[in-house]
């Protein structure tokens, strides 16, 4: 696991029993049913968080007739109590399933005090930043002579709880994050379509990409527009809609990898890798964002022929 992380390569880690090992920083066994560790205990989550208000998104199915809707219509945000949301998740509730829980407040910011926002304000003591991820990031730091023990406090990483139970697949728009991402799936599964930073020339969101920095960040000229993308988040989404031959032409020049992450697995996704995420059925996941150290911004290894994520079948070391 450490070697792909050090090279900034996407990799899936099989956690197995380590998923519920407290020495790995994970104390969320209580999130799952006592008689079945693969099934979430929604009652525990509801009781722990209670009626705290969270921001939900209501998503229309991705594709089909919804392409004629505006982005605001396809993905609407509104407040709701966490308890009501959990009841909507219940598979026996045939009327629910369109609601999705994601980023709250400034949870995607490393200065956003993620642990102060519901629902994680009530669940923050159930996990820490995984030590095996700290060790992997330390390997990066050792290569660029960063001082310190490499430990990561709550103030130095960001975290989000992702929950949903869509009746039809729900797909996020294609985007990148400026932080390294460890995405842990507790229940259900997630499918990631990923592209290396080099593909920014074909997948950019706005403007025209001139260069890609050594650490992966695209430099974009927003005063130039290759083609208006209207209601779409990126040219990738416009291409996938099948409604623009020019966008499809550009998209087909890009390489992509498909990464299916099941319950008990974690995906390491380096900063600035483009990705879209598909959710099907009842899924619960927690992700950890960690910054690249300023002294460690060096050339990244990008496999432009990537077709699937590398899998590390060795379980995370719990010691």
Structure description:
The protein has 9 helices and 17 strands. It is of the alpha+beta class and about 325 residues long. A 9-stranded mixed β-sheet has the order 5-4-6-7-16-9-14-1-17. Strands 8-15-10-13 form a 4-stranded antiparallel β-sheet, with no helix packed on it. Strands 2-3 form a two-stranded antiparallel ribbon. It starts with a helix and ends in a 7-residue tail after the last strand.
Structure summary:
This protein is an alpha+beta fold and 319 residues long.
Using the CA coordinates, give the radius of gyration.
Answer: 19 Å
What structural class should be given to the helix and strand makeup?
alpha+beta
Number of extended strands: 17
Distance between the termini: 15 Å
Q: Please give the order of strands in the largest beta sheet.
A: 5-4-6-7-16-9-14-1-17
Form type: globular
Percent of residues in beta strands?
A: 25-35%
Uncertain runs with pLDDT below 50, 5 residues or more?
A: 63-70
What is the helical fraction, as a range of percent?
10-25%
Could you report the average pLDDT, rounded to the nearest whole number? Answer: 77
Q: Please, what is the oligomeric state?
A: single chain
Topology as H/E string?
A: HEEEHEHEHEHHEEEEHEEHHEEEEE
Number of helices: 9
- Summarize the biggest pleated sheet: 9 strands, mixed
């Amino acid at each position: 696991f450490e070697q792909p992380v050090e090279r900034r390569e996407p990799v899936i880690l099989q956690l197995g029993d380590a998923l519920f090992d407290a020495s790995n920083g994970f104390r969320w066994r209580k999130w799952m049913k006592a008689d079945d560790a693969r099934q979430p205990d929604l009652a525990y989550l509801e009781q722990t968080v209670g009626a705290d208000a969270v921001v939900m998104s209501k998503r229309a199915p991705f594709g089909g007739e919804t392409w004629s809707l505006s982005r605001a219509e396809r993905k609407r945000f509104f407040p709701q109590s966490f308890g009501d949301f959990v009841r909507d998740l219940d598979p026996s509730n045939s009327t629910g399933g369109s609601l999705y829980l994601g980023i709250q407040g400034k949870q995607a910011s490393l200065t956003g005090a993620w642990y102060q926002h519901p629902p994680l304000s009530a669940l923050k003591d159930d996990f820490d930043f995984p030590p095996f991820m700290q060790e992997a990031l330390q390997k990066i730091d050792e290569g660029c002579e960063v001082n310190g023990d490499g430990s990561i406090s709550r103030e130095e990483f960001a975290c989000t709880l992702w929950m949903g139970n869509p009746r039809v697949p729900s797909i996020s728009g294609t985007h990148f994050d400026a932080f390294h991402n460890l995405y842990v799936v507790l229940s259900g599964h997630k499918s990631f379509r990923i592209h290396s930073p080099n593909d920014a020339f074909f997948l950019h969101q706005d403007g025209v990409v001139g260069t890609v920095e050594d650490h992966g960040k695209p430099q974009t000229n927003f005063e130039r527009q290759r083609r208006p993308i209207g209601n779409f988040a990126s040219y990738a989404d416009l291409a996938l809609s099948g409604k623009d031959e020019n966008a499809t032409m550009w998209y087909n020049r890009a390489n992509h990898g498909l990464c299916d992450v099941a319950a008990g697995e974690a995906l390491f996704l380096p900063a600035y890798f483009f990705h879209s995420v598909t959710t099907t059925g009842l899924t619960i996941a927690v992700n950890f964002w960690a910054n690249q150290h300023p002294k460690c911004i060096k050339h990244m290894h990008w496999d432009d022929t990537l077709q699937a994520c590398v899998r590390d079948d060795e379980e995370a070391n719990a010691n």
